[in-house]
Amino acid sequence: MTRLAVLAGAVALSAGLAACNGESAAAPAAAEAVLQGQQLIFPAGHPQLRLLKLEPARPGGTVDVPLSAKLVWNEDRTQRIYPAFAGRVDRIATDIGRVVKPGQVLAELASPDFGAAQADAARAEADQALTHKQLQRQRELLAAGVVAQRDFEQAQADAARAEAELARARARVRMYGGGSGVNQQLALRAGIAGTVVERNLNPGQELRPDQSGPGVPAVFVISDPGTLWVQIDARESEVGTLQPGSAFELELAAYPGRRFEGRVTALADVIDPSTRTIKVRGAVANAERLLKAEMLATAHVQRAAGEGVVVPAGAVLLRGEKHWVFVSPRPGVFELREVQAGAMGAQQVVLRRGLEVGEQVVVENALLLDRQMAAAQASAQPVSAKASQP
Q1: Nearest of 297, 296, 289, 283 to residue 97 by alpha carbon
Q2: DSSP state of 366
Q3: Of 96, 92, 117, 90, which is closest to residue 206 (Cα–Cα)?
Q4: H-helix or E-strand spanning residue 172
Q5: Which strands, in side-by-side order, build the sheet including 206-207?
Q6: What is the H or E stretch that residue 303 is in?
Q7: Are 83 and 77 spatial neighbours (Cβ–Cβ below 8 Å)?
Q8: In this predicted model, what pLDDT tens digit does every residue of 320-352 receive, in sequence order?
């Protein structure tokens, strides 16, 4: 028996033993992709094809531009209350979440300073009564020829000054809710209708009017949560898109899959030189009270794409200063093509040149395909060199 016959018999015997032991033969390895010119060609059924998602390039219409945003109180419907006089908190009449009306008492302070203002009003009232009597007496004496005209005119001036001082003192007391008499009770009242959204005082707390202003929490904050403001940090390139009246949609982490519609109400006239952003203010309805102040959100603005085609942002690759996409002219075939990018958003990109409407573009795992093509280009030999080999 020849050596070749022995080897063949051994192979057949091994295969038979493997079959008897229930062992299956190893599956053949999938054929690799082939580089032909600028195209990478995968054989039909290659497992990697399932990873490469394709979408057609669509005509340029609008591009969704996401921008950072934050919800704040509507300052047109918000009042921050600070004490006008120093005093000690005697009584708190409301709390967070309560609905209040204009003029409603929120808290009461025992305030000697307010008592001094009440005393000024009482003193001005007494002075006005005295000067009025003196003027009446001077009028009678002038009629009898006892006093000079100059003395009567002086009495008139004194009475007028007393009237003015009384009006001023009374107006000051009334402004802060005080009536007649001196009781030193300063009432903090709501100036607008709304909901108490902040309370920053406790019973017995000492308050001073110099503890107010920027950076200092207000004693009470009243607002109407039915409408909130939206502070948007827009890029310099979006100034032409975001104008008063422009629509946008808010997306919040608290409500996935849901968007809230809003409108731009104001635009700043200055751009931040460090971030190159501009402050944009919008308003959003909050009838369901789902939105809360200080929530972080994403504002989605629709920007006109103009000429060109629109593709998902994941389809565009950056090599140096140039942009590229993978196009599939037919199933299993992919070619790298240079394109010119226009408006670029986080989700979509407008391509001005290099791609036609309807062409199939790789939108997922394009980076993986790019690495595979680069490796194939580095290891492949020219077709003419392969043909010359024996």
Answers
A1: 289
A2: H
A3: 90
A4: helix 149-175
A5: 185-189, 105-110, 87-92, 206-207
A6: strand 296-304
A7: no
A8: 888 999 999 989 899 999 898 877 766 778 888
The residue among 262, 117, 229 whose CA lies nearest residue 182 is 117
pLDDT, residue 12, reads 38
Does the pLDDT at position 387 exceed 70?
no
* Non-local CB neighbours of 241 within 8 Å, separated by 6+ positions: 65, 301, 303, 304
Instruction: Tell me the torsion sign for CA atoms 247, 252, 254, 257.
Output: positive
Distance, in Å, from the CA atom of 335 to the CA atom of 327, rounded to the nearest integer, reads 5
Q: pLDDT tens across 248-293, in order?
A: 999 999 999 999 999 999 999 999 888 889 999 999 999 999 999 9
pLDDT band with cut points at 50, 70 and 90 for residue 233: very high
3-state SS, residue 7: helix
Both structure tokens of 54? 């394709």
Cα–Cα distance between 112 and 151 in angstroms, integer? Answer: 39
The amino acid at residue 312 is: P
**Residue 54: strand pairing partners:** 362
Nearest to 160 by CA among 121, 197, 209, 127: 127
Averaged pLDDT score across all residues of the chain: 84
CA dist 133 and 237 (Å) reads 74
Q: Are 69 and 231 in contact (CB under 8 A)?
A: yes
pLDDT at residue 112 tops 50: yes
For residue 282, report the phi and psi dihedrals to the nearest 5 degrees: -130, 175
Structure-block tokens of residue 289 = 């009270």
Torsion on CA atoms 9, 10, 15, 21, rounded to nearest 10: 120
The pLDDT tens digits of the residues spanning 10-42 come to 333 334 434 444 444 444 445 677 888 888 888
d(CA 135, CA 160): 10
Check whether 119 has a pLDDT greater than 70: yes
* Nearby residues of 307 by Cβ (< 8 Å), 6 or more positions away: 60, 352
The secondary structure of 190-223, three-state, reads: CCCCEEEEEECCCCCCEECCCCCCCCCCCCEEEE
